[in-house]
Amino acid sequence: MAVSQELRDGLIGNIPSLRAFAYSLCGNATRADDLVQETMVKAWANFASFQEGTNLRAWLFTILRNEFYSQMRKKGREIEDADGQIAERQAVIGNQESHIELEELKQALDLLPEDQREAIILVGASGMAYEEAAEICGVAVGTMKSRVSRARKRLSEILQREQYDLAV
Amino acid sequence: MKKPSSNSQPAASPHGDRAARTPDPVVEEAISRQLRKLYDEVASDPVPDRFTELLKQLEQQDGKG
Description:
The structure holds 2 protein chains of 2 kinds.
Chain A: H1 5-26, H2 29-46, H3 56-75, H4 78-81, H5 85-89, H6 102-110, H7 114-125, H8 130-137, H9 141-167
Helix pairs in contact in A: 1-2, 1-3, 2-3, 3-8, 7-8, 7-9, 8-9
Chain B: H1 25-43, H2 49-64
């Protein structure tokens, strides 16, 4: 079946957000782009099952998310841990109390449970509405709200403690 | 940074170990900002060639099928 011009354009238009979502999830640029490539191939093969007029971005994000978790289950998490992130930790912390580096945030995200991490990435990082994030993760809106709120709390705890430890 | 102090409590921090768990609005604000930055930095990148190439390949496959 030929893919319509509209879907094709929709797919191209969503590549930047797919890349950002993938990068936020896995924290590794090369792996993120591999995930996006997989997502595009899968989307292309399954466009017949996409209902035109429904939310294409949510549909694509769902594919990417599923791909990410299935890879994680296969490979385990050693890929991320092997990146020497802990070693970088010492260098990145400034002395202003409110100063949080990107690298610290990525490390803190890594410490969150899966469900909270994807929730805060979708809502807090991509700026998506709770409803759309809930659709992508296949949960109720209320569940999504509580995951985001728990994720924010956890991130604060982790990053505040880090700053506190450093101040001592 | 280490501050010389006879007291083991850091003078600069009003928080004790347990109090550090109370959400600090300044930290929360910084987290929100960095979350957006993490995402936006990649989202605002130009689309790498590999993806436009991939799309061409996918279209060619369709043409043959």
